[in-house]
Amino acid sequence: MQDSDQQIREKMESVFPQIIGAVITKRGDKVNLCPINYQAISTIYEKPLTICIGLSNTGYTLETILETKEFVYAYPAKDQIHDIIHCGTLSGRNHDKLSETSLKFSPSSAVAPPHLDGAVLNYECRVVHTYAGHDDASFTILIAEIQQIVPNVDKTNLDKIYSLGGHDYGAITGVDVLQTGRE
Ligand SMILES: Cc1cc2nc3c(=O)[nH]c(=O)nc-3n(C[C@H](O)[C@H](O)[C@H](O)COP(=O)(O)O)c2cc1C
After folding, report:
1. The pTM is what?
2. If you measure from the C-alpha of residue 81 to the centroid of ligand 1, how many angstroms do you get, rounded to a whole number?
3. Residue 31 — φ and ψ, nearest 5°?
4. What is the DSSP letter of 59?
5. Strand order in the sheet with 162-165
6. Do 126 and 142 meet the contact criterion of CB atoms below 8 Å apart?
7. What average pLDDT does the segment 169-176 reach?
8. Arithmetic mean of pLDDT, 128-135
9. 163 lines ligand 1 (CB under 6 A)
10. Do strands 139-151 and 39-41 pair parallel, antiparallel, or not at all (unpaired)?
11. First vs last Cα of the chain: how many Å apart?
12. What spacing in Å lies between the alpha carbon of 90 and ligand 1's midpoint?
């Protein structure tokens, strides 16, 4: 028998915090933003630099990317949390979400979707592979090459945001260094 959603939630509690990223797309003139947790980035040593994201099959973001093959992936900063979570509650298919936020954007150099101003980091990405999963899969995995890395110029605003489990979201304010070196 398969686990219920509640059982899955309880068993996976220990994986939090999970970083929150923002997928920014552009279709025609319309810019849209979708927060996600489902992401992995290649290490800095693997070339080309690659990102993997998982998007719901019902979302406007997936529909747009399958058409345009491009997106910007941003790590929003701490002070953007409210607007970012808001964008996860509505679909760009029937909503101009961004007009309800104070988020600002600037043109990218390698792709049409713009950067998120004030984000900790933006990656300009071009899709190279999509994996739709099995017949009953509810999501699609996209693999994209990172064309440009755009760091935040404001080095005092580098706190990223995280899902903490349930509907709690926050920042991580400290780390324990447990080992220095690999021996
Ligand atoms: C913190 C957070 C994490 C989320 N993670 C994902 C994710 O990994 N993949 C996904 O498809 N949707 C995820 N969502 C849900 C989408 O953001 C949400 O369905 C959004 O409204 C889709 O917008 P769109 O239709 O404009 O693409 C997440 C939402 C939040 C708030």
Report:
1. 0.97
2. 14
3. -95, 140
4. S
5. 18-19, 162-165, 168-170
6. no
7. 94
8. 91
9. yes
10. unpaired
11. 44
12. 9
